[in-house]
TrEMBL record:
<dbReference type="InterPro" id="IPR002129">
    <property type="entry name" value="PyrdxlP-dep_de-COase"/>
</dbReference>
<comment type="similarity">
    <text>Belongs to the group II decarboxylase family. Sphingosine-1-phosphate lyase subfamily.</text>
</comment>
<dbReference type="GO" id="GO:0019752">
    <property type="term" value="P:carboxylic acid metabolic process"/>
</dbReference>
<protein>
    <submittedName>
        <fullName>Aspartate aminotransferase family protein</fullName>
    </submittedName>
</protein>
<dbReference type="GO" id="GO:0004058">
    <property type="term" value="F:aromatic-L-amino-acid decarboxylase activity"/>
</dbReference>
<keyword id="KW-0663">Pyridoxal phosphate</keyword>
<dbReference type="InterPro" id="IPR015422">
    <property type="entry name" value="PyrdxlP-dep_Trfase_small"/>
</dbReference>
<dbReference type="Pfam" id="PF00282">
    <property type="entry name" value="Pyridoxal_deC"/>
</dbReference>
<keyword id="KW-0808">Transferase</keyword>
<dbReference type="GO" id="GO:0008483">
    <property type="term" value="F:transaminase activity"/>
</dbReference>
<keyword id="KW-0456">Lyase</keyword>
<dbReference type="GO" id="GO:0030170">
    <property type="term" value="F:pyridoxal phosphate binding"/>
</dbReference>
<dbReference type="InterPro" id="IPR050477">
    <property type="entry name" value="GrpII_AminoAcid_Decarb"/>
</dbReference>
<feature type="modified residue" description="N6-(pyridoxal phosphate)lysine">
    <location>
        <position position="237"/>
    </location>
</feature>
<dbReference type="InterPro" id="IPR015421">
    <property type="entry name" value="PyrdxlP-dep_Trfase_major"/>
</dbReference>
<dbReference type="InterPro" id="IPR015424">
    <property type="entry name" value="PyrdxlP-dep_Trfase"/>
</dbReference>
<keyword id="KW-0032">Aminotransferase</keyword>
Length: 485
Protein backbone atom coordinates (compact mmCIF):
# COMPACT_ATOMS: atom_id res chain seq x y z
CA UNK A 1 0.00 0.00 0.00
CA UNK A 2 1.31 3.43 -0.93
CA UNK A 3 1.84 5.73 2.02
CA UNK A 4 0.38 9.20 1.41
CA UNK A 5 2.35 12.15 2.63
CA UNK A 6 0.60 14.31 5.21
CA UNK A 7 1.29 17.86 4.12
CA UNK A 8 2.01 20.71 6.46
CA UNK A 9 -0.75 23.27 7.15
CA UNK A 10 1.86 25.93 6.32
CA UNK A 11 2.33 27.10 2.75
CA UNK A 12 5.69 26.38 1.11
CA UNK A 13 7.09 29.87 1.68
CA UNK A 14 5.90 29.92 5.30
CA UNK A 15 7.45 26.50 5.85
CA UNK A 16 10.65 27.65 4.16
CA UNK A 17 10.90 30.54 6.58
CA UNK A 18 10.27 28.23 9.52
CA UNK A 19 12.94 25.78 8.34
CA UNK A 20 15.44 28.59 7.89
CA UNK A 21 15.03 29.54 11.54
CA UNK A 22 17.39 26.71 12.50
CA UNK A 23 20.18 27.96 10.20
CA UNK A 24 23.10 30.21 11.01
CA UNK A 25 22.36 33.86 10.13
CA UNK A 26 23.79 35.00 6.79
CA UNK A 27 23.54 38.68 7.70
CA UNK A 28 24.71 40.63 10.73
CA UNK A 29 28.42 39.81 10.49
CA UNK A 30 28.27 37.17 13.24
CA UNK A 31 28.78 34.05 11.11
CA UNK A 32 32.54 34.00 10.61
CA UNK A 33 32.71 31.10 8.15
CA UNK A 34 30.78 29.94 5.08
CA UNK A 35 29.13 33.31 4.36
CA UNK A 36 30.43 36.80 3.60
CA UNK A 37 28.33 39.77 4.62
CA UNK A 38 28.78 43.21 3.11
CA UNK A 39 26.58 44.77 5.77
CA UNK A 40 24.72 46.56 2.96
CA UNK A 41 21.00 45.63 2.66
CA UNK A 42 20.84 47.10 -0.86
CA UNK A 43 23.49 44.66 -2.06
CA UNK A 44 21.41 41.73 -0.85
CA UNK A 45 18.20 43.11 -2.38
CA UNK A 46 19.82 43.62 -5.79
CA UNK A 47 21.32 40.13 -5.70
CA UNK A 48 17.99 38.48 -4.84
CA UNK A 49 16.11 40.32 -7.57
CA UNK A 50 18.73 39.52 -10.21
CA UNK A 51 18.88 35.84 -9.22
CA UNK A 52 15.09 35.60 -9.38
CA UNK A 53 14.96 37.29 -12.79
CA UNK A 54 17.40 34.76 -14.27
CA UNK A 55 16.60 31.63 -12.24
CA UNK A 56 15.16 29.83 -15.27
CA UNK A 57 17.87 30.91 -17.72
CA UNK A 58 20.56 28.45 -18.79
CA UNK A 59 24.16 29.42 -19.52
CA UNK A 60 24.71 26.07 -21.26
CA UNK A 61 24.21 27.69 -24.67
CA UNK A 62 25.55 31.27 -24.94
CA UNK A 63 23.80 31.72 -28.30
CA UNK A 64 20.43 31.10 -26.65
CA UNK A 65 21.09 33.43 -23.71
CA UNK A 66 23.53 36.07 -25.00
CA UNK A 67 22.84 38.32 -22.01
CA UNK A 68 24.48 35.76 -19.75
CA UNK A 69 27.49 35.58 -22.06
CA UNK A 70 27.84 39.36 -21.90
CA UNK A 71 27.55 39.37 -18.11
CA UNK A 72 30.13 36.59 -17.82
CA UNK A 73 32.57 38.41 -20.10
CA UNK A 74 32.12 41.66 -18.17
CA UNK A 75 32.75 39.89 -14.85
CA UNK A 76 35.91 38.33 -16.25
CA UNK A 77 36.99 41.74 -17.55
CA UNK A 78 36.54 43.34 -14.13
CA UNK A 79 38.59 40.57 -12.53
CA UNK A 80 41.31 40.85 -15.19
CA UNK A 81 41.71 44.54 -14.39
CA UNK A 82 41.76 43.76 -10.67
CA UNK A 83 44.39 41.02 -10.97
CA UNK A 84 46.88 42.69 -13.35
CA UNK A 85 46.00 40.31 -16.18
CA UNK A 86 47.54 40.92 -19.63
CA UNK A 87 45.40 41.70 -22.68
CA UNK A 88 45.63 38.03 -23.69
CA UNK A 89 43.90 36.79 -20.52
CA UNK A 90 40.61 34.89 -20.58
CA UNK A 91 38.33 33.50 -17.92
CA UNK A 92 35.25 31.48 -17.01
CA UNK A 93 32.52 31.78 -14.39
CA UNK A 94 32.24 28.60 -12.31
CA UNK A 95 30.01 27.47 -9.46
CA UNK A 96 32.59 28.09 -6.72
CA UNK A 97 36.21 27.83 -5.69
CA UNK A 98 36.27 24.05 -5.73
CA UNK A 99 35.08 23.90 -9.34
CA UNK A 100 37.63 26.55 -10.34
CA UNK A 101 40.38 24.46 -8.71
CA UNK A 102 39.11 21.25 -10.29
CA UNK A 103 39.20 22.86 -13.72
CA UNK A 104 42.70 24.27 -13.17
CA UNK A 105 43.96 20.77 -12.34
CA UNK A 106 42.01 19.05 -15.12
CA UNK A 107 43.21 21.58 -17.70
CA UNK A 108 46.82 21.19 -16.58
CA UNK A 109 46.54 17.40 -16.83
CA UNK A 110 44.91 17.40 -20.25
CA UNK A 111 47.45 19.88 -21.61
CA UNK A 112 50.15 17.23 -21.01
CA UNK A 113 48.98 13.97 -22.61
CA UNK A 114 52.61 12.93 -22.83
CA UNK A 115 52.78 12.51 -19.02
CA UNK A 116 51.54 9.03 -18.11
CA UNK A 117 51.27 9.56 -14.34
CA UNK A 118 50.85 13.31 -13.83
CA UNK A 119 51.48 14.96 -10.49
CA UNK A 120 51.05 18.42 -8.97
CA UNK A 121 53.25 20.04 -6.35
CA UNK A 122 51.31 21.52 -3.43
CA UNK A 123 52.32 23.23 -0.20
CA UNK A 124 50.87 21.24 2.69
CA UNK A 125 48.55 24.18 3.40
CA UNK A 126 46.90 24.10 -0.05
CA UNK A 127 43.11 23.84 0.03
CA UNK A 128 41.58 20.37 0.28
CA UNK A 129 39.92 20.98 -3.11
CA UNK A 130 43.26 20.09 -4.70
CA UNK A 131 43.09 16.70 -3.00
CA UNK A 132 39.59 16.31 -4.39
CA UNK A 133 40.96 17.12 -7.84
CA UNK A 134 43.72 14.57 -7.35
CA UNK A 135 41.08 11.97 -6.48
CA UNK A 136 38.83 12.84 -9.41
CA UNK A 137 41.44 13.24 -12.12
CA UNK A 138 44.22 10.86 -11.13
CA UNK A 139 46.78 13.61 -10.64
CA UNK A 140 49.12 12.67 -7.81
CA UNK A 141 49.42 15.27 -5.03
CA UNK A 142 53.04 15.85 -3.99
CA UNK A 143 52.79 17.61 -0.63
CA UNK A 144 55.65 19.87 0.43
CA UNK A 145 55.94 20.99 4.09
CA UNK A 146 55.63 24.73 4.68
CA UNK A 147 57.95 26.89 6.74
CA UNK A 148 57.44 27.96 10.36
CA UNK A 149 55.47 30.98 9.10
CA UNK A 150 53.01 28.59 7.39
CA UNK A 151 54.05 29.87 3.94
CA UNK A 152 55.21 27.63 1.10
CA UNK A 153 58.91 26.84 1.06
CA UNK A 154 60.06 27.86 -2.46
CA UNK A 155 63.28 25.83 -2.41
CA UNK A 156 61.44 22.69 -1.30
CA UNK A 157 58.71 23.31 -3.88
CA UNK A 158 61.34 23.68 -6.63
CA UNK A 159 63.06 20.48 -5.54
CA UNK A 160 59.75 18.58 -5.72
CA UNK A 161 59.15 19.45 -9.39
CA UNK A 162 60.09 16.66 -11.79
CA UNK A 163 59.18 15.38 -15.25
CA UNK A 164 55.76 14.20 -14.03
CA UNK A 165 54.74 17.61 -12.69
CA UNK A 166 51.94 19.30 -14.64
CA UNK A 167 51.00 21.96 -12.08
CA UNK A 168 52.53 23.88 -9.17
CA UNK A 169 50.22 25.60 -6.68
CA UNK A 170 50.45 28.59 -4.36
CA UNK A 171 47.81 30.24 -2.16
CA UNK A 172 46.83 33.88 -1.74
CA UNK A 173 46.05 33.41 1.07
CA UNK A 174 45.93 29.88 2.45
CA UNK A 175 42.57 29.20 4.05
CA UNK A 176 43.68 27.68 7.34
CA UNK A 177 46.16 30.44 8.29
CA UNK A 178 45.36 33.45 6.11
CA UNK A 179 48.89 34.07 4.77
CA UNK A 180 50.08 34.58 1.21
CA UNK A 181 52.66 32.15 -0.17
CA UNK A 182 55.87 33.51 -1.80
CA UNK A 183 54.29 33.37 -5.25
CA UNK A 184 57.17 35.12 -7.05
CA UNK A 185 59.65 32.40 -6.13
CA UNK A 186 57.21 29.50 -6.55
CA UNK A 187 56.07 30.70 -9.98
CA UNK A 188 59.68 31.20 -11.08
CA UNK A 189 60.51 27.63 -10.11
CA UNK A 190 57.54 26.34 -12.11
CA UNK A 191 58.39 28.48 -15.14
CA UNK A 192 61.98 27.27 -15.10
CA UNK A 193 60.68 23.73 -15.63
CA UNK A 194 57.98 24.74 -18.13
CA UNK A 195 55.18 23.91 -15.71
CA UNK A 196 51.94 25.77 -15.09
CA UNK A 197 51.57 27.70 -11.82
CA UNK A 198 48.10 28.19 -10.37
CA UNK A 199 47.42 30.71 -7.62
CA UNK A 200 44.47 29.79 -5.43
CA UNK A 201 43.12 33.23 -4.57
CA UNK A 202 39.58 31.96 -4.10
CA UNK A 203 39.21 33.71 -0.77
CA UNK A 204 41.66 36.60 -1.20
CA UNK A 205 41.42 37.50 -4.85
CA UNK A 206 38.69 40.11 -4.51
CA UNK A 207 40.09 41.73 -1.36
CA UNK A 208 43.91 41.61 -1.50
CA UNK A 209 44.18 44.09 -4.41
CA UNK A 210 42.21 46.57 -2.34
CA UNK A 211 44.34 45.82 0.71
CA UNK A 212 47.38 46.93 -1.31
CA UNK A 213 45.58 50.11 -2.38
CA UNK A 214 44.76 50.79 1.28
CA UNK A 215 48.48 50.73 2.03
CA UNK A 216 48.61 47.32 3.68
CA UNK A 217 51.61 45.11 2.97
CA UNK A 218 50.65 42.37 0.50
CA UNK A 219 53.24 40.04 -1.10
CA UNK A 220 53.08 39.92 -4.93
CA UNK A 221 50.75 37.21 -6.21
CA UNK A 222 48.73 38.41 -9.25
CA UNK A 223 49.41 38.03 -12.99
CA UNK A 224 52.01 40.77 -12.51
CA UNK A 225 54.18 37.90 -11.24
CA UNK A 226 55.96 36.18 -14.11
CA UNK A 227 55.15 32.50 -14.32
CA UNK A 228 51.63 32.69 -12.88
CA UNK A 229 49.48 30.99 -15.50
CA UNK A 230 46.06 30.86 -13.79
CA UNK A 231 44.24 32.31 -10.80
CA UNK A 232 40.98 31.32 -9.11
CA UNK A 233 38.98 34.00 -7.31
CA UNK A 234 35.55 33.59 -5.76
CA UNK A 235 32.96 36.28 -6.31
CA UNK A 236 30.63 34.76 -3.73
CA UNK A 237 33.17 35.63 -1.06
CA UNK A 238 34.55 39.19 -0.97
CA UNK A 239 32.70 40.40 -4.04
CA UNK A 240 29.69 39.76 -1.74
CA UNK A 241 27.77 38.09 -4.57
CA UNK A 242 25.19 35.34 -4.05
CA UNK A 243 26.26 31.70 -3.83
CA UNK A 244 27.73 30.18 -5.86
CA UNK A 245 30.09 31.83 -8.31
CA UNK A 246 33.82 31.91 -8.82
CA UNK A 247 36.13 32.90 -11.66
CA UNK A 248 38.98 30.92 -13.18
CA UNK A 249 41.34 33.18 -15.13
CA UNK A 250 44.11 32.06 -17.50
CA UNK A 251 46.99 34.18 -18.75
CA UNK A 252 46.09 33.30 -22.36
CA UNK A 253 43.42 31.38 -24.27
CA UNK A 254 45.68 28.46 -25.17
CA UNK A 255 46.01 27.63 -21.47
CA UNK A 256 42.24 27.51 -21.03
CA UNK A 257 41.43 25.42 -24.12
CA UNK A 258 42.06 21.98 -22.51
CA UNK A 259 39.43 22.90 -19.91
CA UNK A 260 36.67 22.84 -22.53
CA UNK A 261 34.76 19.63 -23.27
CA UNK A 262 33.00 18.82 -26.53
CA UNK A 263 31.34 15.63 -27.71
CA UNK A 264 29.53 14.84 -30.96
CA UNK A 265 29.65 11.09 -30.30
CA UNK A 266 25.91 10.71 -29.77
CA UNK A 267 22.73 11.50 -31.78
CA UNK A 268 21.74 14.59 -29.78
CA UNK A 269 23.14 18.11 -29.85
CA UNK A 270 26.89 18.44 -29.86
CA UNK A 271 27.76 18.92 -26.20
CA UNK A 272 30.04 21.88 -25.55
CA UNK A 273 30.93 22.84 -21.98
CA UNK A 274 33.27 25.46 -20.54
CA UNK A 275 33.02 24.01 -17.01
CA UNK A 276 32.28 20.68 -15.35
CA UNK A 277 28.60 21.58 -15.52
CA UNK A 278 26.40 21.45 -18.59
CA UNK A 279 23.29 23.25 -17.42
CA UNK A 280 24.31 26.36 -15.50
CA UNK A 281 21.62 28.44 -13.88
CA UNK A 282 21.71 32.03 -15.03
CA UNK A 283 20.63 33.16 -11.56
CA UNK A 284 24.03 33.20 -9.83
CA UNK A 285 25.72 34.78 -12.87
CA UNK A 286 23.12 37.55 -13.05
CA UNK A 287 23.18 38.05 -9.29
CA UNK A 288 26.97 38.36 -9.27
CA UNK A 289 27.00 40.71 -12.26
CA UNK A 290 24.34 42.93 -10.67
CA UNK A 291 26.21 43.14 -7.36
CA UNK A 292 29.54 43.95 -9.02
CA UNK A 293 27.85 46.58 -11.19
CA UNK A 294 26.21 48.13 -8.12
CA UNK A 295 29.22 48.10 -5.79
CA UNK A 296 31.90 48.97 -8.32
CA UNK A 297 35.60 49.51 -7.79
CA UNK A 298 35.28 52.37 -5.30
CA UNK A 299 32.63 50.49 -3.36
CA UNK A 300 34.84 47.43 -3.02
CA UNK A 301 37.68 49.60 -1.80
CA UNK A 302 35.40 50.95 0.95
CA UNK A 303 34.14 47.47 1.87
CA UNK A 304 37.70 46.16 2.05
CA UNK A 305 38.57 49.05 4.36
CA UNK A 306 35.77 48.05 6.73
CA UNK A 307 36.78 44.39 6.67
CA UNK A 308 40.41 45.19 7.49
CA UNK A 309 39.37 47.61 10.23
CA UNK A 310 37.42 44.74 11.77
CA UNK A 311 40.43 42.41 11.35
CA UNK A 312 42.69 44.88 13.15
CA UNK A 313 40.21 45.23 16.01
CA UNK A 314 39.89 41.45 16.40
CA UNK A 315 43.67 41.00 16.31
CA UNK A 316 43.99 43.62 19.07
CA UNK A 317 41.47 41.73 21.23
CA UNK A 318 43.38 38.49 20.76
CA UNK A 319 46.68 40.17 21.61
CA UNK A 320 45.12 41.62 24.78
CA UNK A 321 43.95 38.22 26.07
CA UNK A 322 46.62 36.19 27.94
CA UNK A 323 44.81 32.95 27.08
CA UNK A 324 44.78 33.61 23.31
CA UNK A 325 47.40 34.08 20.63
CA UNK A 326 47.53 34.56 16.89
CA UNK A 327 48.84 31.50 15.10
CA UNK A 328 50.36 33.86 12.52
CA UNK A 329 49.71 37.54 11.73
CA UNK A 330 47.10 37.62 8.95
CA UNK A 331 47.89 38.90 5.44
CA UNK A 332 44.21 39.11 4.57
CA UNK A 333 40.78 38.87 6.19
CA UNK A 334 41.30 35.43 7.72
CA UNK A 335 42.28 35.32 11.39
CA UNK A 336 43.52 32.12 13.03
CA UNK A 337 43.93 31.97 16.79
CA UNK A 338 45.03 29.37 19.30
CA UNK A 339 44.64 29.00 23.07
CA UNK A 340 47.00 28.34 25.96
CA UNK A 341 46.75 25.34 28.28
CA UNK A 342 44.17 27.05 30.49
CA UNK A 343 41.60 27.15 27.74
CA UNK A 344 40.04 24.45 25.56
CA UNK A 345 39.59 25.77 22.00
CA UNK A 346 36.58 23.58 21.28
CA UNK A 347 34.78 24.75 24.40
CA UNK A 348 35.58 28.32 23.39
CA UNK A 349 33.88 27.83 20.02
CA UNK A 350 30.80 26.44 21.78
CA UNK A 351 30.71 29.39 24.18
CA UNK A 352 30.98 31.88 21.32
CA UNK A 353 28.15 30.14 19.47
CA UNK A 354 26.02 30.30 22.60
CA UNK A 355 26.52 34.08 22.48
CA UNK A 356 25.54 34.32 18.81
CA UNK A 357 28.97 34.10 17.14
CA UNK A 358 29.89 31.22 14.86
CA UNK A 359 33.62 30.56 14.50
CA UNK A 360 35.17 27.51 12.86
CA UNK A 361 37.26 25.02 14.85
CA UNK A 362 40.27 23.54 13.05
CA UNK A 363 41.59 20.19 14.25
CA UNK A 364 45.21 19.32 14.92
CA UNK A 365 47.34 18.71 11.84
CA UNK A 366 50.83 17.20 11.81
CA UNK A 367 52.75 18.95 14.60
CA UNK A 368 50.29 21.84 14.94
CA UNK A 369 47.57 21.80 17.57
CA UNK A 370 43.93 22.80 17.12
CA UNK A 371 43.04 26.36 16.23
CA UNK A 372 40.04 28.60 15.58
CA UNK A 373 39.37 30.21 12.21
CA UNK A 374 37.51 33.47 11.53
CA UNK A 375 36.58 34.76 8.08
CA UNK A 376 35.98 38.46 8.69
CA UNK A 377 33.60 40.44 6.47
CA UNK A 378 32.82 44.12 6.04
CA UNK A 379 29.56 43.47 7.87
CA UNK A 380 31.44 42.41 11.00
CA UNK A 381 32.81 45.89 11.67
CA UNK A 382 29.54 47.30 13.01
CA UNK A 383 29.43 44.51 15.61
CA UNK A 384 33.10 44.19 16.52
CA UNK A 385 32.57 45.64 20.02
CA UNK A 386 29.91 42.98 20.63
CA UNK A 387 32.38 40.32 19.46
CA UNK A 388 34.99 41.65 21.89
CA UNK A 389 32.51 41.32 24.76
CA UNK A 390 31.43 37.85 23.65
CA UNK A 391 35.06 36.75 23.30
CA UNK A 392 35.97 37.89 26.81
CA UNK A 393 32.90 36.21 28.31
CA UNK A 394 33.51 33.03 26.33
CA UNK A 395 37.15 32.82 27.39
CA UNK A 396 36.12 33.16 31.04
CA UNK A 397 33.40 30.52 30.67
CA UNK A 398 35.72 28.09 28.87
CA UNK A 399 38.44 28.50 31.49
CA UNK A 400 35.89 27.85 34.22
CA UNK A 401 34.59 24.75 32.42
CA UNK A 402 38.05 23.27 32.11
CA UNK A 403 39.48 21.11 29.35
CA UNK A 404 37.45 18.52 27.49
CA UNK A 405 38.76 14.99 27.94
CA UNK A 406 38.17 12.01 25.72
CA UNK A 407 37.41 8.72 27.45
CA UNK A 408 40.45 6.43 27.15
CA UNK A 409 38.15 3.59 26.18
CA UNK A 410 36.83 5.61 23.23
CA UNK A 411 40.39 6.44 22.19
CA UNK A 412 41.34 2.76 22.34
CA UNK A 413 38.22 1.82 20.36
CA UNK A 414 39.11 4.32 17.63
CA UNK A 415 42.76 3.29 17.47
CA UNK A 416 41.84 -0.38 17.13
CA UNK A 417 39.75 0.20 13.99
CA UNK A 418 41.01 0.21 10.42
CA UNK A 419 39.31 3.15 8.67
CA UNK A 420 39.69 1.43 5.29
CA UNK A 421 37.78 -1.66 6.40
CA UNK A 422 34.90 -0.34 8.50
CA UNK A 423 31.45 -1.86 8.23
CA UNK A 424 28.08 -0.36 9.09
CA UNK A 425 28.20 -1.69 12.66
CA UNK A 426 31.63 -0.11 13.16
CA UNK A 427 30.34 3.19 11.81
CA UNK A 428 27.32 3.08 14.09
CA UNK A 429 29.59 2.43 17.06
CA UNK A 430 31.88 5.27 16.10
CA UNK A 431 29.01 7.69 15.61
CA UNK A 432 27.53 6.78 18.98
CA UNK A 433 30.92 7.00 20.72
CA UNK A 434 31.62 10.38 19.16
CA UNK A 435 28.31 11.87 20.21
CA UNK A 436 27.43 12.70 16.61
CA UNK A 437 24.34 10.49 16.81
CA UNK A 438 21.92 10.56 19.68
CA UNK A 439 19.69 7.71 20.78
CA UNK A 440 16.20 9.16 20.31
CA UNK A 441 13.19 6.99 21.08
CA UNK A 442 12.24 6.67 17.41
CA UNK A 443 15.78 6.00 16.25
CA UNK A 444 16.16 9.33 14.48
CA UNK A 445 19.54 11.03 14.29
CA UNK A 446 19.91 13.78 16.87
CA UNK A 447 22.57 16.43 16.47
CA UNK A 448 24.43 17.53 19.61
CA UNK A 449 23.82 21.07 20.80
CA UNK A 450 27.46 21.48 21.87
CA UNK A 451 30.36 20.15 19.84
CA UNK A 452 33.38 20.39 22.18
CA UNK A 453 33.40 16.70 23.12
CA UNK A 454 32.79 15.67 19.50
CA UNK A 455 35.64 17.85 18.23
CA UNK A 456 37.95 16.63 21.00
CA UNK A 457 37.25 13.05 19.94
CA UNK A 458 37.87 13.89 16.27
CA UNK A 459 41.08 15.64 17.28
CA UNK A 460 42.61 12.45 18.69
CA UNK A 461 41.60 10.41 15.63
CA UNK A 462 43.90 9.99 12.65
CA UNK A 463 43.05 12.00 9.52
CA UNK A 464 41.89 8.81 7.79
CA UNK A 465 39.61 7.99 10.72
CA UNK A 466 38.23 11.53 10.77
CA UNK A 467 37.36 11.18 7.10
CA UNK A 468 35.70 7.80 7.60
CA UNK A 469 33.72 9.00 10.60
CA UNK A 470 32.47 12.16 8.94
CA UNK A 471 31.57 10.32 5.73
CA UNK A 472 29.48 7.96 7.84
CA UNK A 473 27.93 10.94 9.62
CA UNK A 474 27.03 12.60 6.29
CA UNK A 475 25.57 9.33 5.06
CA UNK A 476 23.32 9.18 8.12
CA UNK A 477 22.29 12.81 7.71
CA UNK A 478 21.28 12.47 4.08
CA UNK A 479 18.40 10.04 4.26
CA UNK A 480 14.92 10.49 2.72
CA UNK A 481 12.22 12.28 4.72
CA UNK A 482 9.11 10.24 4.05
CA UNK A 483 5.57 10.20 5.29
CA UNK A 484 4.43 12.87 7.71
CA UNK A 485 6.12 16.26 7.73
Amino acid sequence: MTEHRVTSPLGPLERLKALQGADLPVHGGRTLAYVYDSGEPTVDRIAREAVAAYAASNALDPTAFPSLLQMENELVGFACDLLDAPASAVGTVTSGGTESILLAVQGARDARPDVVRPTMVLPSTAHAAFHKAAHYFGVGAVLVPVGPDFRADPAAMAAAIDDSTVLVVASAPSYAHGVVDPVTEVAAAAAARGVRCHVDACIGGWVLPYAARLGREVPPWTFAVEGVTSISVDTHKYAYAPKGTSLLLHREASLRRPQFFASAAWPGYTMLNATTQSTRSGGPIAGTWAVVEHVGDDGYLALAGRAFEAVDAIVAEIDASPALRLVVPPDSTLVTLATDDSLDPFTLTDELLARGWYVQPQLSHADDGPSIHLSVSAGTLAHVDELATALAESVAAAVAAGPVSVDPGVVAFIEALDPAALGDDDFDGLLAASGLVGASADGELELPTRMAEVNAMLDVASPAMREALLVAFLDRLQRPSRGER
